[in-house]
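Bench notes, afternoon.
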Amino acid sequence: MGMLDGKVAIVTGAGRGIGRGIARQMAAEGAAVVVNDLGTALSGEGVDVSVAQQVVDEIRAEGGSAVANTDSVADYRAAEAMVQQAIDAFGRLDIVVNCAGILRDRMIFNMTPEEWQAVLDVHLKGTFNLCKWASVRFREQKSGRLINMTSNSAFGAPGQPNYAAAKAGIIGLTLSCANGLARYNVTANAVVPSGATRMIDSIPSAREAVAHTGKLPSELAAGTEKDPDNVAPLVTYLASDAAQHISGHLFGSFGYNVVLFSQPKIIKTLRADHRWTVEELAQHIPQAFGSDFQEVVNDPRVSAAIEAIPEGKWVEIGPGLRFFGTKIEPHMEFVWSGVGPHPRPLSQPWERGGGRSTKHAVRGSGTALRSPSPRVGRGG
């Protein structure tokens, strides 16, 4: 018995890399899969319909059920037809995994409107298209799973303003879906994946690797922590009935590490009994927020945070399995529920600050308000 027996899934961008691994894993767990891939170059140009069919053939050779789809996720009506294809072929739809993507990397001062739009059309609009049409079906049947691939580039990759914006938008879209569809027993989660795919092959460090090894990173990844197939078990779990209680969260898959990111939250606040003046803010913000300004994410490679965890901080939870969890300090945070975010009161008292009746919500030795970059909450 597989964890997805009787389920039907659409996996976009499933002809190569991470999407291919997800499609094959879901099929191995009993799901019938619509394998979507337009077969384009990394830039989104060209078409190769054999790419999706090859994965379908692999799934069928292993005893699974699959059909190919070669439509563009950026096409609103094509996304509707893709959902209908799943229903026509297999009688239902239970899972959508949005994995399709392209790159048009450029620094912001060099980026053209066409490069900006092309990436948003595939990543953000494409994810919306599938989520929209799947949600129509999920609402009727009162069940479903939406799992959207985002990226640590959303935290500020400097040479990818289009990609970063699209992937950050996918996080917001996922949270909105989680809240809006909760009453229909539909879950929505986002995953930050990693793995040596052709996207990784395209970055400058990959060319350095070729100079040393004679091979691209993707050609050396199989069976290692850089294998893109490492992402598939987490996504398959989130698609299963075992994860029916999990929605509105951002996960990460980095090698053999599975992480949960913190929800956006207010960690410090400045308060006054009047409208702040510019002079007051100039005086109090550096004092209140200064220590946290040092936490700006300069390196979007979140996996570096995992590597920095001291060996002694990990707790053994099973053979070859370890857990690391950070303590969440008391503060005001937005708690997401089926009806939207609501504030949890600050558990620490207001303290009188300097100047005209200013107040600080204190955490540690600092004070104030920060809209934090998402940080790793738990790793294991």
